[in-house]
């Protein structure tokens, strides 16, 4: 399949290029970049040298449409919706990695982001979390790839919410992400010396991903969920670990709740539910498309603590976007996603 | 004052040596070490070279008593209580940095640690959190220096608990610590390659500091508190950041609650309450004796998020132990503790 | 091909397992471990979970021989030579990752290591640096996989030495390695807090790899080479960067010398010679089997500075060991080694 | 003494503020900043909160002159020389932390930097390396504070050069610096994810500090020195370690050469010469004003390897600038510089 990437020189774009370069059914065609048009992608990311030396181009929609079957848009929020309708109109299948098409509810998007420019497409787009929406993804021509924090959070909570095991008023997600989540755009907050040796929370009580998590979990559980979500910045490159707290509705032990998880994810290739006593760590998933999930019931407080870990650039972005491509194309879902974490 | 340190070659012991070496009223006398007796402390920690080149000795209680007015015990839990009674018997003033004398309730200690060998001393010991117990510390001959996580957690919660602003059944402390908190003892969990690039929770729902936090906050608030405490390991050397969640009892905004904090800590030299919109970060406190506290009310959920940051080896250990010495000796509380964080 | 690994639970062993698990022609058979016999490899390295869950075993030579065609020995120096002769006697093909069979000259080995227990095998073993010894490797039954520092150093210097471009008395190799090079064995020197934020030289003027580099470069150039080699410890997990200095024999510019390198390595899949103005960085090779090489002539001093970068666990160890397997088996040399660096 | 800082919000400026805030004889007056005029320095660097909350101002030369006895200029190269003459004209004593006044030879400056705007002042300025130039510094009104790499390099080599122990044609300095050396200015090269886990050389064979090192060592030795200097970027915040190679003129052993060093630096408070067998590490000096120096003779090659370590922001910049102030003011040289490295 001929695949092009719009916005190929951000970290997500680079990760798509890297992963797609070893996908056996994908032929990488056009890589667009506003900042680096005319330069080889392997001069911008020298890890690609010798494997992918494609020259980046400015976006030319007609040329792109003529040479591609499938397009990834790896653009900032608000920019994607300027481009995606044009792609859909030209009959291209699209996976958008921004937040622009993730919401069912237009008002929620506009409350947390900005006025939407193609609300009608919002209705057609499918939220690309394969574990929840596989059949809709398969049938769709426009998939909105989930956010990184929502991926880790929703996958960790869905079995509890779907089975009505927790009180829906007391969910707290304390999430920690590596710095690649902030992208390659320069800012003081991502300057090496400011991040190294440091740790901080940011956007407390107002991060946009809160609304994405709430909307999707509300759909899973069938009743409104409002929760607390706090992101933190880790002095590492890759990985998210979410520590999630909820009050149990009834007195179940760790083993019993793990059964619900095992059952919920029993067909999933990229979810690894840890047995009792084992909890996820970022180093076990960074570099892979896995989401590791572990949990423990705290009998003293009647609370469950669920921990999930992903690579924010893979399962939280480019890897999930390839998983969605595999589903849309009817291929083996693991194609191009076989890498294990390097551990070290 | 003549001060000796029992257990001077762990990270806490080294930190005491480093800080006391510039304390204007302290003369460092004996440094004991089981592992390094006969070696100069500056061969073990070459940062001290030229300033403190004292030879470490095996513990000789009589010699120690003869040459010291004041003793720090920086020993593992369970080992301290074998030594401290001997020191107290010899009339020495003692600050113990282990968990052995921190509890009012013997049963709590024994439930979370092990059988106690000097329970009568437990009653005499004072919990050395200056902001809560200043006058008792001043009058005491045996001070139990608080744990690092409890310091960050109790200071962050005390104003809320003391003023009955929060529901006491829904307190969640999600804490993250640098690796020096685990000390210098070798373990796979602290091997460089296993910690670097990684992040994980540990001892979920059963870390001993849970009980220390609960006991002290219960004393502050006058009614039983049971809470969730989850420690995590950060790939940095120093610093703890605690993100704390509680449900507000009434509808107060961030500014109003900050007033309670400002008032509660208005005389404290080492507490910095951040104004609205600013939150603590580890890099602002690492290397100093400050505890920075910031908070935000999340009106959507009726929840307050309080964030505190300390240097686990200073305000969470050796610095607080010097603060306690200053109080016990009747000196200016800031002596030897003027250092600011290096920021970088 | 049925492949077993003796010593599978060190970092090198794990890396072999991880890489071989995606090698299309390899069936992983027995994984031995003295420390973890009876445990699943994926409990020791949870990144492998779901892909390689083999139970580790104690070494049983007969069982191993019965079920394997090919064996990797990833054992400490001095231990390998106790096992390798037994494997060779049983007709197994072996790649040894220790230093025990790397030397042509027995005396050099014994001067820098210890008395050798199977000197006759030393003569049969082939030094497994594919770029220099491809045909011998292909014909051999016992390949000694090169050390990590020698791989980076020899590949960087071979074109200069082979073409007599430099003075052989003034070669200086200043090398810097990530901490995984020291393995998983606990030591204070690899304790997280001791390595993090730190940088140091170690084993100055007496690291064993000096002799390995000298012997192999002497063979390349045909005359004795004695050089300075200084290893340093980087606070990162993976990667070696070597900065190499030599005095040019004649007045050649950067472009001209790069031509020699391009020519020398023109058929090599895993050597990437950087064009003028570009120099290697660890982040471009970590996670891959590439050796990146760049250089610059300093006309002010008549000196050339060559810089090479590898992943010490891949091109410097397990990856090169798979490259050697591919050569010995007559397969495409890149099988199982297609991974690019993750860059981040 | 009333001290002001021009350019107080870069990393060097902040470090001056932090260190001067505990200097017993200094009253900090005006802090200027182009970017942050009107903001409190403690909002820009919250580590200073509660100790230094001065509001930053735009530079007003007359106001500055009226309220200050002494001025630090912590400005970029090329900008300093626009300001320093005005300060000198107004009778202020000045320590300039840029490269603008470091050179004796105007042509060298202009070859490596740019045309000079106040060459006459160049002649009056004294190079502020206290260990070499103490008496001139004491008598001077304009001191050019040395570069960070030159400080580490010159101090490591001066005893060898002064005593004619080495061949002056084969000196190689392989230096590695933490990222704070690049300042707070945003660039892709200092973006967290690009530096973390990475290591690289930069400005190979053309870094400006080469010329500074050469000029000063030439003065020490009395004959022209041309050398190789290669800087590298370490993924840490603070610290420089320089590994230096030279060919010995005669056959001296490590112990003998250490005697030369001990003698050369016997009166120096901030030089710690390591005994045989011990080598400097960054973690022993970061946070302090020490320069640690160790060395080893490699008898196989007739070469000496000298290793020096400093904190680039302290001994390599702000600390040395305070040392110079202490000398110029006739105070105890260690005032304000007593801090030891934190080790962790």
TrEMBL record, chains A, B, C, D:
SUPFAM superfamilies tied to this protein: Glyceraldehyde-3-phosphate dehydrogenase-like, C-terminal domain (SSF55347), NAD(P)-binding Rossmann-fold domains (SSF51735)
An example Gene Ontology CC term for this record: cytoplasm
Subcellular location: Cytoplasm
InterPro entries the UniProt entry points to: AGPR (IPR050085), AGPR_AS (IPR023013), AGPR_dimerisation_dom (IPR058924), AGPR_type-1 (IPR000706), NAD(P)-bd_dom_sf (IPR036291), Semialdehyde_DH_NAD-bd (IPR000534)
PROSITE patterns hit by this protein: ARGC (PS01224)
Alphabetical list of SMART domains matching this protein: Semialdhyde_dh
Biochemical pathway: Amino-acid biosynthesis; L-arginine biosynthesis; N(2)-acetyl-L-ornithine from L-glutamate: step 3/4
Chief localisation class: cytoplasm
Protein name: N-acetyl-gamma-glutamyl-phosphate reductase
């Amino acid at each position: 399949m001929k695949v092009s990437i719009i916005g190929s020189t951000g970290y997500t774009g680079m990760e798509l290029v890297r992963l797609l370069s070893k996908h056996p059914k994908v032929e990488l065609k056009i890589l667009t970049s506003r900042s680096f048009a005319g330069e080889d992608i392997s001069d911008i990311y020298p890890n690609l040298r010798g494997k992918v030396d494609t020259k980046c181009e400015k976006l030319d929609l007609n040329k792109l449409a003529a040479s591609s079957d499938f397009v990834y848009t790896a653009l900032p929020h608000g920019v994607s919706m300027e481009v995606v309708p044009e792609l859909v109109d030209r009959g291209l299948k699209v996976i958008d990695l921004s937040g622009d098409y993730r919401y069912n509810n237009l008002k929620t998007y506009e409350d947390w982001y900005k006025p939407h420019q193609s609300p009608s497409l919002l209705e057609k787009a499918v939220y690309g979390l394969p574990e929840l929406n596989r059949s809709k993804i398969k049938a769709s021509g426009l998939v909105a790839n989930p956010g990184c924090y929502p991926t880790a959070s929703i996958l960790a909570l869905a079995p509890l919410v779907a089975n009505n095991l927790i009180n829906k008023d007391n969910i707290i997600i304390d999430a920690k992400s590596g710095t690649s989540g902030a992208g390659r755009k320069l800012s003081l907050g991502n300057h090496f010396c400011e991040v190294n040796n440091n740790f901080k929370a940011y956007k407390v009580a107002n991060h946009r991903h809160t609304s994405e998590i709430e909307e999707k979990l509300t759909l899973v559980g069938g009743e409104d969920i409002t929760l607390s979500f706090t992101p933190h910045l880790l002095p590492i490159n890759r990985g998210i670990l979410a520590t999630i707290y909820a009050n149990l509705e009834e007195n179940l032990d760790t083993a019993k709740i793990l059964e619900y998880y095992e059952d919920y994810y029993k067909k999933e290739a990229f979810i690894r539910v840890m047995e009792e006593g084992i909890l996820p760590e970022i180093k076990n998933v960074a570099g892979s498309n896995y989401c590791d999930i572990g949990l423990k019931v705290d009998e003293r407080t009647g609370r469950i603590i669920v921990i999930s870990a992903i690579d924010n650039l893979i399962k939280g972005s480019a890897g999930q976007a390839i998983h969605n491509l595999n589903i849309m194309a009817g291929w083996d879902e693991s194609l191009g996603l076989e890498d294990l974490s390097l551990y070290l």
